[in-house]
Automatic annotation (TrEMBL), chain A:
Pfam families named in the record: ABC_tran, BPD_transp_2
UniProt entry tagged with the keyword Transmembrane helix: yes
Top-level taxon of origin: Bacteria
Entries under InterPro entries matching the protein: AAA+_ATPase, ABC_AA/LPS_Transport, ABC_transp_permease, ABC_transporter-like_ATP-bd, LivM-like, P-loop_NTPase
UniProt membrane topology term: Multi-pass membrane protein
Name of protein: Branched-chain amino acid ABC transporter permease
A GO cellular-component term linked to this record: plasma membrane
SUPFAM superfamilies: P-loop containing nucleoside triphosphate hydrolases (SSF52540)
Localisation per UniProt entry: Cell inner membrane
TrEMBL record, chain B:
Bilayer-crossing regions: 6-27, 34-54, 60-83, 95-115, 135-161, 190-212, 224-253, 260-280
PANTHER family tied to this protein: ABC TRANSPORTER PERMEASE PROTEIN (PTHR11795:SF450), BRANCHED-CHAIN AMINO ACID TRANSPORT SYSTEM PERMEASE PROTEIN LIVH (PTHR11795)
Protein name: Branched-chain amino acid ABC transporter permease
Annotated organism of origin: Billgrantia endophytica
Family matches, as CDD domains: TM_PBP1_LivH_like
GO biological process, one term: amino acid transport
Keywords, ordered alphabetically: Amino-acid transport, Cell membrane, Membrane, Transmembrane, Transmembrane helix, Transport
GO annotations of cellular component type: plasma membrane
Main subcellular localisation: membrane
GO MF annotations, alphabetized: transmembrane transporter activity
A Pfam family per the record: BPD_transp_2
Subcellular location(s) per record: Cell inner membrane
Length: 601, 294
């Protein structure tokens, strides 16, 4: 075994962590105050690294201004305690809430723009907060700094008459850190963690599973801000003196570097990164002298030289399901899908849909009805508008004209995640899984829209949350069995053959317990036996009353499945009926093979 | 009233420089969908070098030319070291972080070589005391010159991009690099040239803005980069005309608020403007909506 991985295994072992923390908590009473303060400082850095990791490493939203959160939080915490006498634990909680709100407000544009806009915005945020704390002298003391904040360092921090010493302050921080990390770990392994990561890797796929782009990013920003707020509160009391110079761009960069070097995405990596960059500058004078040069070079080269940071070297990866904490009760595959009522008219009713792109009419007055429990095949040459129709129904495109009704409700123009939440689930022409997730995690992601438990329940692993997660894990296992994927369950999807990725995506769609299933060329590139599994999955859906729209070029595959087939050419419907009739239809044959030359006729 | 007019004129002057920097950002954004987060340091390096070289007795024109050459080279190096290898990292995470890193590195190098203190910037355009009366207010000739030069360069670049062969190349690459490559357009060369020009524009902007402010220090570029980015976003990312209009408006707004209230408040307003535009109309005044392709 790789010795580095062995180290990784040891340090992420709960017993090791427990013993280490106990030793540190006891030792705090025996070492000098400066050392304890250093340890406190380390905890602040770990919390900040966790905060930026949640936002940048997991949700993929780059923050270049995290010192802004630290600054706002520090001054809020200081003022609450100094001027209003709020007991310090309460003050820290209020600080957390304020910081979270700042994060939320910052993320308001996040649903509509690509990441680098937000990155530049975060850079501006850090800079402007720094400027504001310098200028707002009445409140912050400006460049002279703010003094007289009750602090364990000066023996002035009291709570209910008990004077908190540095060693007890450290112990309180240590316990807070452990609770925080425990909650973060559970959170990341829940459907929230998967959603965060999914919008990072593929916003379009995430949307198709009912994960809201803007909502998830705002949540990530708010949570990250909140965690930074806790760190800031502890920091303000620990130092007892605040100056704007602690909140410069360099501080933001330092937090980012800790997180990147530790390993973006890994919770344990953050601890290591924070430890490294808390102690290194203490030990190496060069670090301080050439701070800009060193941090600059780290940022330039870390993604190339050490893409997954120290955590990657040590082989400690954060997984995105509670599979390792819970055992799944595997139900019968028929229990995975609800039995839908097939009696009540059209499930989806597309009326006169027109889709125009600049200079191109991809759909020209298309109408289509799909009944529950039936399979409608869409055929036609490439570029005839089949995928466009699926994109319109699933909310990725807003049609130029026409309506799409789902169970009588007009849904055209709805954002994709809202459409998905109704029970309309799709797959893509090129499979869109999260490559670094295992097959199990990917399929579990399909169930996202069905989860009922909230973020707090997920973070503390409440009984209800565990029950729900266990139930969905069981359904995923049943689907994997049906799709013959169980032997790949714990392999990263990105490393698997194309056919397996396709099947995993279809299984993921079924895990959402859909009412309408839109499959865009699911059989392309599948082997004979994989096609059979796919056919079984599609029949399973149909037999439960799911309406299916199926695009494919394999006529034999369609023949066995479809109730009705619709052929398209150049954005128009040219045939509707059974497969037999389509083969004989002149217009369809011409669209596929071209016109026969008259002279040979 | 005089004060008001002076603020307007100085606002137009820095605003034109914002437009110049924004044009530099747009140029690489067109060809590669990437922009340099370390551009602030490029402004600084060009201005710093100019000031130091002229200070040590070098011919003024030569000093400026060398500085601009360095600025162009820095951007080419950025592309090769900090952008191209990182495009395979998912999303924009890789290049955002690495270009920022390169900027910070340059800032460190500049501090090491020239010290962290502000350096006085010599008069390269007129004397700082030369001024003319416009609508009753005394306006520094330097402001007028900076404004004219910036607007002229933005205008010339626009014409160049619209009517020259090279401009066609840029627009073809912006539209679809693979297709452009199939049409025989040397995509790689176009990309590198766009970076070089982006660097040159940043260099010119750095020198012009230092001429107005009178001093330059290693940390000075970041604010300019952010304000220029705001101008680019408000005008519509990718639109040169939009950036010019938004840049001028932003410059005037900034100077008025800074003049009557405080510079921090001006930056705060600019920031709120950025958040609001991104939230309400991310394509800006004149930009085109981005289409999701599936």
């Amino acid at each position: 075994m790789n010795p580095l991985h062995l180290i990784g295994r040891v340090i992420s072992n709960p017993w090791f962590v427990g013993v280490l923390c106990t030793v540190a908590a006891v030792a705090a009473g025996f070492v000098n105050q400066g050392t304890v303060q250093m340890w406190c400082f380390l905890i602040v850095n770990i919390m900040l690294a966790q905060s930026i990791n949640l936002l940048t490493g997991i949700a993929g939203q780059i923050s270049l201004g995290h010192a802004g959160f630290l600054a706002i939080g520090s001054y809020v915490a200081a003022v609450l305690l100094k001027d209003y006498g709020v007991p310090f634990p309460v003050a820290i909680l209020i600080t957390m809430v304020v910081s979270a709100m700042v994060g939320y407000v910052l993320a308001i544009p996040s649903g509509r723009v690509r990441e680098f806009y937000l990155a530049m915005m975060s850079l501006a945020f850090g800079l402007i907060v720094y400027e504001l704390v310098r200028e707002w002298r009445d409140l912050t003391g400006g460049v002279m700094g703010m003094r007289g904040i009750p602090s364990p360092n000066l023996n002035t921090l009291e709570i209910f008459g008990w004077q908190v010493s540095m060693e007890w302050y450290f112990r309180i921080m240590l316990i807070s850190l452990l609770v925080l990390m425990m909650m973060l770990r559970n959170f990341v392994k829940s459907h929230f963690g998967r959603a965060f990561y999914a919008i990072h890797v593929s916003e379009v796929a995430a949307g198709s599973l009912g994960i809201s782009q803007g909502g998830t990013k705002r949540f990530a920003y708010a949570l990250s801000g909140g965690i930074a707020g806790i760190a800031a509160g502890f920091y303000a009391y620990m130092v007892g003196y605040l100056t704007p110079e602690s909140f410069t761009l360099m501080r933001s960069v330092e937090i980012l570097v800790m997180s990147i070097v530790g390993g973006l995405g890994s919770l344990m990596g953050q601890v290591l990164g924070a430890a490294l960059f808390t102690y290194l500058p203490q030990q190496l004078q060069a670090f301080n002298d050439y701070q800009f040069i060193v941090y600059g070079l780290i940022l330039v080269f870390s993604f190339i030289l050490l893409p997954r940071g120290i955590a990657g070297l040590l082989g400690t990866h954060t997984r995105y399901s509670k599979h390792d904490q819970l055992t799944a009760n595997i139900p019968d595959v028929n229990a995975v899908l609800s039995r839908r009522d097939t009696g009540s008219g059209a499930l989806v009713d597309v009326q006169g849909v027109v889709m125009e792109f600049t200079g191109l009419r991809a759909l020209d007055d298309v109408s289509l009805k799909v009944l529950p429990g039936t399979i409608t095949g869409l055929v036609g040459p490439n570029g005839s508008g089949k995928s466009t129709l699926i994109n319109v129904i699933s909310g990725i495109y807003k049609p130029t004209a026409g309506t799409v009704r789902f169970k009588g409700q007009a849904i055209n123009g709805w954002p994709a995640h809202k459409v998905a939440c109704l029970g309309i689930t799709r797959t893509f022409q090129d499979p869109r899984n999260v490559p670094s997730f295992t097959v199990r995690e990917n399929i579990l992601m399909g169930a996202h829209r069905l989860y009922k438990h909230g973020a707090f329940a997920a973070s503390i692993n409440s009984p209800a949350a565990s029950r729900e997660e266990g139930q969905f894990l069981g359904r995923v296992d049943a689907l994997m069995k049906e799709a013959d994927l169980i032997r790949h369950a714990d392999e990263a999807v990105g490393n698997l053959p194309y056919g397996i990725q396709r099947l995993a995506e279809v299984a993921r769609a079924l895990a959402s317990d859909p009412e309408l299933l839109l499959l865009d060329e699911p059989a392309a590139g599948l082997s004979e036996s994989e096609s059979e599994r796919l056919g079984a999955l599609i029949r399973l859906a149909r037999d439960h009353g799911v309406g299916v729209i199926l695009i494919d070029h394999h006529m034999d595959f369609l023949e066995e499945l479809v109730d009705e087939v619709v052929a398209f050419d150049a954005g128009r419907e040219i045939y509707r009926g059974d497969m037999e009739g389509m083969r004989a239809d002149r217009a369809v044959v011409e669209a596929y093979l071209g016109k026969e030359e008259e002279s040979h006729a | 009233m005089d004060f008001f007019l002076q603020m307007i004129f100085s606002g137009l002057s820095v605003g034109a420089v914002y437009a110049l920097i924004a044009l530099g950002l747009n140029l690489t954004f067109w060809t590669t969908r990437v922009l340099n987060f370390g551009q602030g340091s490029v402004l600084m390096i060009a201005a710093m070098l100019t000031a130091v070289m002229i200070g040590s007795g070098l011919n003024m024109l030569l000093a400026i030319l060398i500085s601009l050459a360095v600025a162009g080279a820095v951007l080419i190096i950025s592309e090769i070291v900090a952008i191209r290898p990182l495009l395979k990292v998912s999303g924009s995470m890789g290049w955002v972080v690495s270009t920022l890193g390169l900027g910070i590195f340059l800032q460190g190098v500049a501090s090491l070589a020239f010290g962290t203190q502000a350096v006085a910037f010599p008069d390269v355009l007129f004397s700082s005391s030369a001024s003319v009366q416009l609508f009753g207010a005394w306006v520094s000739m330097q402001y007028i010159a900076v404004f004219m030069i910036s607007v002229l360069i933005v205008g010339l670049m626009e014409l160049f991009l619209r009517y020259s062969t090279w401009g066609y190349g840029v627009r073809a690459v912006a539209h679809d690099p693979d297709l452009a490559s199939l049409m025989g357009i040397p995509v790689r060369k176009v990309v590198l040239y766009s970076f070089m020009f982006s660097g040159l524009l940043a260099g010119v902007a750095g020198i012009l803005v230092s001429q107005i402010s009178g001093t330059v220090d290693p940390g000075f570029g970041l604010h300019l980069l952010i304000l220029a980015f705001i101008a680019a976003v408000v005008g519509g990312m990718g639109s040169a005309t939009g950036a010019l209009i938004a840049g001028l408006a932003l410059g005037v707004l900034e100077k008025l608020i800074a003049g009557y209230y405080s510079p921090a408040a001006a930056h705060m307003v600019a920031f709120v403007l950025l958040v609001a535009v991104l939230a309400i109309r991310p394509q800006g005044l004149l930009g085109k909506k981005e289409m999701v392709k599936v």
